[in-house]
Amino acid sequence: MATTLCKLLFKLNFEGELSKDFTVFGYAFTPDGKFLDQAILKKGQVELNLTVRDAPTAQIFFGPGLVKKIVGPPTIDMMEKIKAYKPKWSFKSSATKYEISAIPESCHKLWSLVFCHIQGHVLKHFVNNGVTITKPVFNARVHICEIDKIRFIIPRLPKDILLRLRDELIIAIEKPHPGIPPIPDPPLIAFDPGFIDPSPIHMANIAHENKTSMVTGNFSKLGQVSFNPQPEPPREPLIINLKNPPARAVSLPQVIPANLKKELKSTSVDKVRLSLINNVNLIYPHLCYWPWFFPYFYQSIEMPVVYTNEQGLFEADCLYLQPGDHPDLYFWVEYRIGEVWTTVYRPPIPCHTYWDYPCGMDVTISITDPRVTSIEEPPSMQELMVGVINIGYGISLHQINHNIPDTSPEYKEKAGLTINGEPFGGSIEPEVWFGKKLIENGITHYKWSYRKIMDVKGDVVTDDEWHAMDRLVIRHYAVSDPDHPHSISFKPALMGPDPAFPDKNLIKIQPQTPPEGDGWAPLIDIRENSASSFFLSHLLKGGDPSIAAGKYELKLELFRSDGITNASNLVTFCIPKVNAPVGMATDDTDPAGINNLITDPVTNVVTGFSMVIHVDNNVCEGEIFETSVNLEKAGNCGFIKYVSGANNALISFLAYHPNGFARFRFTTVKGSSGNQTLACIPPDPNDPSAENPLVTILKINDFKNEIVGDTDETTGNFTKSIPVDDLLGECKLVGRLGGKACFGENLAVYATATDGWSRLSYLDSYPTPKAFALEP
After folding, report:
1. Which residue among 131, 647, 668, 748 has the highest number of C-beta atoms inside a 10 angstrom radius?
2. Is the CB of residue 547 less than 8 Å from the CB of residue 463?
3. CA-CA distance, 452 to 548, in Å (whole number)?
4. DSSP state of 238
């Protein structure tokens, strides 16, 4: 059944002259504040359409028009903010026209709105070789919010909160804060609160510190690592940091005047409320010290959402009431991570609001979230061809088990590992060669994505979606300076994500010539200039390597210049036939096989190239246990007394990697005689094929935790019982039982993971060496 509407006409009159700088609107709400309708003033009348049910009790307001891009419908709070006029009127079922008494000039003169230009920069601090540098953040989404002023919040406060605000204010003025608000206890996270280094080495150090000891079971005090966006700690309110701070922030009383203190101490809640409203200038400098008051702040209006350009700049215009205060602005930021807009900066409103924002002032937002990034010429293949060549510099696809069918018995064991059984970790960077005919034929962009398909236990993962690799990709080029003919500059050119296609994470195929200058210069940073994209595997699952480890499918797609049409079916994907690095040899390729091509299940058209990578960023663990003879341990001083006769020394240590991707080396040294026949396993971690006749105690498979000997396969504990006489050797007493000698023990556990450039040595473990001495 259709709802019956009432068309109500309101004829408006105004005292004085009405400004021509604005349009007048009528707004209707239910008694509880639900928005009903709005309409513009035409020929002195406003027509509002209300239902028969809502019309008798409707609240009617008249005021200036709201900013077009305000999020959501108008609210009662907005009416208060724009100084809307609420007339007295009474609904009559027989009437459709109502004449409103003249709106006072003191009211409508406040309705003149003017533009305020807002601008700022989003920046990120990076650590490069120990040096902190600042770079712009490109394509960040900045939310600009106009915050309710304190004088609008105070009338809504409950009695108990109002009185607490009064009491805290008196204390804060008479006992001033030292200048910087106290910083709360840091979250359980191992990041530097100032500058966060998201490098693979830094993440491995965190993992080392957060590792549970396989021996003691004790956790690091740092707790679990996570990447939840962390707000900045409370700091000095921005009101006192503006270039041109308002007068209310310049001088603050250290003693409350007697008359004001009397008003604040009044037993009348209404008088206290009014006094606080009339003295809001005293409240602002202390807001950041009162976290208990934070929940009472509201973001009344969100301005148009804006995006940063390649310089990290964002700009917007907002409207505000000219006779009133400048807008109070608050900013929060999202960043595209894995094709999902993710909040990376949202600090407490009271500590980070720009009170009375001076229009045009530059706002600087510093991002600390480690997932946020800042902003060569490879040989070109002929025809419509794409070569997926290497991971990094040192491992070609020929050296990876990247296309084993998932129905094969070898899939769980070998897929995604190198042919030597090594997993990948850190920043995994596929190197791709693009044929020069691609751009000529309108194929201008590509995109790398990833998804997890199997965990370390061999269980298939079915609920993961595709995530784009959205770290910035750049290429350097050379530019001569005509004013300095003997110098040259090397500049970065942004390949992607291409700002021409927001939210798509498309990377431009490198053109034959740079934007300007003398040509591409890949040698400036060979790693940066050769990567087609960056799979930041050490940041997966919030940086927790134990959860993130497993097999991932990587997908490469090609797109036409419209940024929409997939053009992967028009090219031939090729993979190399030889190992990397090629050196002086020729690198021949073969067309990619069926296991590397993604096809549409209906049309059988190729939609992309696919490969499997096994990821494991887990750190190794090692510990040398105390040697003992007949339960007599070396102790702090290292001496073991033994009774001459048939005695055995028990030597043991821990060499562990949760998924077996490690090798280890254990050696003993007697006095100054060098390594003993207890030997090492294997002798050289970088040469797993090397043979050593001294390996007589223990042996570990190069790539799995398959232990041979008296060991614990689950925990990685290795033990061996050795006759004391064998240990003493030439140190035995001639013609008598017994003897004495001292021994040193060393252990190194080497991770086998690689990023294609080098073995990830930062995942290794080098436990503290130990020593013991035998004496009768």
Report:
1. 668
2. no
3. 9
4. G
